[in-house]
């Protein structure tokens, strides 16, 4: 049986990070949809039904990607997923750092290049030089 499965999967894409994400989202939506569908209100039943339908679509898409023979296309989709995931993760890390530094530093955007500049808090009115474009602007820290 194991050998037959291995032969079947030869040349197919298999599982990757995007497939895992789709599968987890599908199961979470399926569970939430069943919970919402069991509530005896019209709006929540409709929302629950939509969530169940969406979850099945995600699970089917995950299976399709796993069994696909177009490995180049699936690898490209996985790469795009990583690009988007890294943007989201870096945005959250930046927010966390800003929150931790809120008592010590202030953050400003350069009016010319829109880069973020970190300056010490409590120094009064200071002239800030952007490290990217060398533009100078005055702000109160």
Tell me what you see in this structure:
By secondary structure, this protein is of the alpha+beta class. It folds into two domains: 2-100, no CATH class; 104-141, no CATH class. It contains four helices and four strands. The chain has helices at 2-9, 17-38, 42-67, 71-100, and strands at residues 105-109, 116-120, 125-129, 136-140. The strands form two sheets. The protein has a two-stranded antiparallel ribbon with strand order 1-2. A two-stranded antiparallel sheet has the order 3-4. Helix 2 packs antiparallel against helix 3 (42-67). The longest helix is centred in the middle third of the chain and has 30 residues, at 71-100. It is elongated and about 70 Å long. It starts with a helix and ends with a strand.
Protein topology:
Layout: H1 2-9, H2 17-38, H3 42-67, H4 71-100, E1 105-109, E2 116-120, E3 125-129, E4 136-140
Antiparallel strand pairs: 1-2, 3-4
Helix pairs in contact: 2-3
> What is the helix/strand order?
HHHHEEEE
Supply the helix-strand structural class. Answer: alpha+beta
Q: What level of helicity do the residues show? A: 55-70%
Strand content: 5-15%
CA radius of gyration is 24 Å
Gross geometry: elongated
What is the strand tally?
A: 4
Distance between the termini: 69 Å
**Sheet with most strands: strand arrangement:** 1-2
Q: Main β-sheet: number of strands, strand sense, barrel status?
A: 2 strands, antiparallel
- Any idea how many domains? 2
Number of helices: 4
* Average of the residue pLDDT scores: 91
- Segments where pLDDT lies below 50 for 5+ residues? none
């Amino acid at each position: 049986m194991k050998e037959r499965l291995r032969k079947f999967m030869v040349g197919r894409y298999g599982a990757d990070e995007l497939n895992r994400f789709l599968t987890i989202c599908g199961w979470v939506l399926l569970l939430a949809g069943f919970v919402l569908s069991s509530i005896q209100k019209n709006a929540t039943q409709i929302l629950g039904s939509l969530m169940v339908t969406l979850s099945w679509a995600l699970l089917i898409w995950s299976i399709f990607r796993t069994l696909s023979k177009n490995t180049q296309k699936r690898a490209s989709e996985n790469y795009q997923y990583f690009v988007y995931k890294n943007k989201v993760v870096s945005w959250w890390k930046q927010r966390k750092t800003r929150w931790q530094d809120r008592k010590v530093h202030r953050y400003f955007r350069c009016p010319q290049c829109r880069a973020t500049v970190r300056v010490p808090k409590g120094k009064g009115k200071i002239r800030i030089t952007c490290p990217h474009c060398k533009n100078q602007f005055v702000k109160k820290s």
